[in-house]
Amino acid sequence: MLLFPSKKCNLRVWGLCKVYASSSIDIKAMLQVEKKIATIHNVFAIIRGSEEPDRYVLLGNHRDAWTYGAVDPNSGTAVLLDIARRYALMMRQGWQPQRTIVLCSWDADEFGMIGSTEWVEQNLLNLGSKVVAYLNVDCAVQGPGFFAGATPQLDNLLIEVAKKVQDPDSESMTIYDNWMITNKVINIQRLSGVDYDFAPLLQHAGVPSVDLYYGRDFPVYHTAFDSYNWMTNHGDPLFQRHVAVAGVWGLLALHLADDPILPFNYVLHRTIMELHKSPTQLGER
Fold first, then answer.
1. What pLDDT, on a 0 to 100 scale, did the predictor assign at position 21?
2. Residue pLDDT, tens place only, 259-272
């Protein structure tokens, strides 16, 4: 019997997270699971800051996958490891950030963001006051086209960094240039939802956050086809987009860790917050 995505779904993307429908035929399904308690492990690499060691810039990606996970999450994990390699080379040349940089590898994301959520809950008292920003990459590369979401105070920094990194699909342009051509305007999305590791840091601890990725959707999400073969044939055959994400992600962290004055634009943040006020709130001013 043929199953097809229901009209409630994005018809371009399907996976075990989606809703399925059939014709009027009843379907019986059996779900077999193993209920057990297991230990999970978050892994952190810390580069201690020289001037403000108690202020933290976090870069995070989860490493557990439904199946092979070439896109979700291993594309992000590969980029995070490359950033670690680049920072190590800089440290050998004598560099040390002014603020502490923490590279975070979260466990048990696919079980409900357990790794990041438990860590946030355990450290909640310090996170809101000491974490400068959280920079998240889940699926670094899903296909063509650069996309980003952020809290408003980080919009300007994201744009400036995009102007410094070469576009992986055009030698003559930066990511910013191609971003403008593709979207006509710079469209930075607002972060929402609870199925990403930025959710506990942003929504529970109030940490300014960014989420980066190439390619809006990919049709093998959470299936056994999310493999190295799919990545080399469809997602990023030359792995140039991976390099581009590493450039943007790593530079964002460097600015947040090394700029003498934090590169936040709270004027824009206030303007956007005003636009989201209800008519009742506006009338109270």
1. 58
2. 999 999 988 767 77
Report pLDDT for 92. Answer: 98
Instruction: Count CB neighbours of 127 within 10 A.
Output: 21
| Positions of the chain with pLDDT lower than 50, given as ranges | 1-15, 282, 285
Are 80 and 62 a contacting pair, CB within 8 Å?
A: no
Match 């709130």 to its residue by tokens: 281
Backbone conformation region of residue 222, classed left if phi is above 0, alpha if psi is from -120 to 50, else beta: left
Q: Which domains does the chain have, with CATH numbers?
A: 43-277 (3.40.630.10)
Ramachandran angles phi, psi of 4, nearest 5°: -140, 150
Give me the helices (H) in the chain, please. 74-92, 114-122, 124-130, 155-162, 175-183, 198-199, 228-230, 240-258, 266-275, 279-283
